[in-house]
Amino acid sequence: MDKFDEKELIYQQMDLLMEERRELTKSYNELKDRLCNLDSEKDMSYLIKKNSSKIPKSEIENQKYLLAKKEGIKRNQSYQKISLTIASILKEAGVPLSNKEIYRILTEEHQVAISYPNLTSNILPRIKEDSSIHVERAYRGYWQYRLT
């Protein structure tokens, strides 16, 4: 057997291996897709059973967002509007109010969509530094309208 024949046989073997590899890859991908489909079907049936008695928290949040959007309540309200609302709340109260009271009044009576940590960590300290808003910190956790 000469070199040329041997090379030709090697190329044939390589071609057969490549063809076999293609087939194996194709079979592997088909099995992988089927496995994913079975897992998603299993997950879906599990979720349906699990959620039949309990509504997921994300779904509740989505519904709240859609209702707020439908009612015209803006999700992201400007600092200026929130700060003026807080100032008017404190002015009407006449006495220092706690963070929780301010938050309750904002969310329930004025329908301002804001989180409690955002109010206490960002908005109220920013109001304290703002000279155009007449709100001051009475003592820890309590705020009052500043008479000037």
Total of DSSP H or I helical runs spanning 4+ residues: 5
What percent of the residues sit in helical stretches (DSSP H or I)? over 70%
The chain-level mean pLDDT equals: 82
DSSP strand content: 5-15%
Give me the secondary-structure category.
Answer: mainly alpha
Biggest sheet features? 3 strands, antiparallel
Radius of gyration: 33 Å
* Order of strands across the main sheet: 1-3-2
What is the strand tally? Answer: 3
Uncertain regions: pLDDT < 50 for 5+ in a row? none
H/E element sequence = HHHEHHEE
- End-to-end separation: 108 Å
Apparent shape: elongated
Q: What do you see in this structure?
A:
The protein is mainly alpha-helical. Helices cover 70% and strands 7% of the residues. It has a three-stranded antiparallel beta sheet with strand order 1-3-2. A hairpin with a 2-residue loop joins strand 2 (135-139) and strand 3. It is elongated and about 110 Å long. The model has no long low-confidence stretch (mean pLDDT 82).
Which characteristics define this entry?
148 residues, mainly alpha, three-stranded antiparallel beta sheet, 70% helix, elongated
Short précis:
The protein is mainly α and 148 residues long. The protein is 70% helix and 7% strand. The longest helix has 49 residues, at 3-51.
